[in-house]
Amino acid sequence: MDGNNNLTKLTQMNLSKNKYLSNIDEVSNLTNLDLSYTGLQNVKFVSNLTNLTYLNLNYYLNLKSIDELSNLTKLSILH
Predict the structure, then answer these.
(1) What pLDDT, on the 0 to 100 scale, is given for residue 1?
(2) Among 28, 59, 62, 72, which is least packed by CB within 10 angstroms?
(3) What are the CA-CA distances from residue 18 to residues 13, 15, 47, 74, 75 (Å)?
(4) Measured between alpha carbons, how far is 26 from 65 in angstroms, rounded to an integer?
(5) What is the CA radius of gyration of the chain?
(6) What φ, ψ does residue 49 adopt, rounded to 5°?
């Protein structure tokens, strides 16, 4: 995302089926994030997205732990 200031205004992002995720933590205003079918092994990179209220991890088949989500105090819906 390389410093594109317009992305910081995003509140919703659908990255389902995307295998190459990077710099998502720079989009700090996200409230809704869909990471379904990504197949990644951890969710550490979302731990700084403290505005998230909705997170979709459906079919996140290789996920080993969700401990990193404890920082997401506004999260009310987790799939």
Answers:
(1) 45
(2) 62
(3) 12, 6, 19, 25, 22
(4) 22
(5) 12
(6) -90, 70
CA atoms within 13 A on the CB side of 31: 5
SS (H, E, C) 14-39: ECCCCCCCCCHHHCCCCCEEECCCCC
Q: What is the structure's pLDDT at 61?
A: 64
pTM to 2 decimals? 0.81
- Which residues lie across from 36 on neighbouring strands? none
Residues forming a β-bridge with 4: none
Q: Are 61 and 37 in contact (CB under 8 A)?
A: no
Q: Do the beta carbons of residue 42 and residue 65 sit within 8 Å?
A: yes
What does each of the 79 residues of the chain score in pLDDT, given as a tens digit?
445 556 778 899 898 988 777 777 778 889 999 988 887 777 888 888 999 999 998 877 677 778 888 889 999 999 8
